[in-house]
Task: inverse folding
């Protein structure tokens, strides 16, 4: 098993453990320097809180040596400076595949053991990712004010914004089970370059509202949404729906004046965000392309400015 496979296993196990304690864990799209995932603290809110923790996952001893009561994690100062100066509190999680245990520690100055060329930190074996750490993780994420939490909601989507800025296609794809009480079960964020899928990640949430456009605006306030299908594709699907509704076997039986009137009412009832396909009157399929609105463009400019100031900050 190579290091990439090990790393993915560790992140998958962390995601499952975080879900069990009632929080959310989102894998980072692309390789962020030193951050593999974000943990979001969830309370009663239905929408993102911005109470986030950055996570670096190490699987089966990578950069770690085992002692009786802890693991020693060792790294270079480039990573340490990045984590200590990160806008989010950061934890390191070690996953032992054989024992199936996730141990963790927060990166803090008072826990660092410094040497000339490297540094280390102890990851206590008593610190396990389960219900016992739920309150402690919440306290770690609470050390930021409301403005920073709002900033973090945008920061979590930075990779998506940067891909759009580079010219890649970013789509939100999901299924709406229209006859089920829990109709939308997951969003998939897919990134395409020249029509080739290059990144894909599931975007977890608690409860998705009945108004799909409202829900997307809450989750991605920096975005403009556009149905990712042609008018011809949409018209084919609407004609099929119209024929099915009136029991018509072929297009030659369509009253086109009646169809045009029906179509106008149908599109008005669906709203701006519409499915590109319906399967068996049970599932609406959505593929929505995402663009930057003025907030997204401004946030990218702000982020570029903040990055340019790093050399002046010690």
Result:
């Amino acid at each position: 098993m190579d290091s990439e496979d090990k790393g993915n296993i560790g992140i998958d196990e962390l995601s499952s453990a975080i879900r069990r304690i009632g929080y959310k864990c989102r894998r980072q799209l692309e390789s962020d320097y030193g951050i593999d995932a974000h943990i979001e603290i969830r309370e009663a809110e239905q929408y993102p809180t911005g109470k986030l923790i950055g996570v670096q996952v190490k699987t089966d001893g990578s950069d770690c040596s085992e002692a009786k009561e802890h693991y020693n994690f060792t790294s270079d100062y480039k990573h340490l400076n990045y984590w200590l100066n990160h806008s989010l509190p950061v934890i390191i999680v070690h996953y032992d595949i054989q024992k199936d245990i996730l141990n963790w520690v927060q990166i803090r100055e008072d826990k660092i053991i410094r040497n000339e060329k490297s540094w280390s930190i102890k990851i206590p074996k008593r610190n396990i990712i389960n219900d016992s750490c739920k309150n402690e993780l919440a306290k770690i994420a609470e050390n930021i004010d409301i403005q920073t939490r709002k900033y973090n909601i945008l920061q979590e989507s930075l990779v998506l914004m940067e891909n759009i800025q580079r010219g890649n296609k970013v789509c939100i794809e999901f299924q709406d089970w229209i006859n089920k009480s829990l109709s939308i079960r997951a969003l998939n964020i897919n990134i395409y370059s020249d029509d080739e899928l290059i990144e894909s990640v599931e975007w977890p949430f608690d409860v998705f509202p009945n108004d799909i456009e409202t829900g997307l605006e809450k989750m991605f306030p920096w975005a403009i949404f556009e149905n990712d299908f042609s008018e011809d594709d949409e018209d084919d699907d609407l004609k099929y729906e119209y024929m099915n509704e009136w029991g018509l076997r072929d297009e030659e039986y369509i009253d086109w004046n009646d169809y045009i009137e029906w179509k106008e009412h149908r599109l008005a009832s669906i709203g701006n965000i519409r499915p590109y396909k319906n399967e068996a009157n049970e599932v609406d399929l959505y593929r929505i392309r995402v663009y930057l609105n003025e907030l997204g463009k401004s946030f990218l400019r702000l982020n570029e400015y903040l990055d340019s100031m790093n050399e002046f900050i010690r």
Summary: The longest strand covers residues 283-292. The CA atoms of residues 23 and 42 lie 5 Å apart.
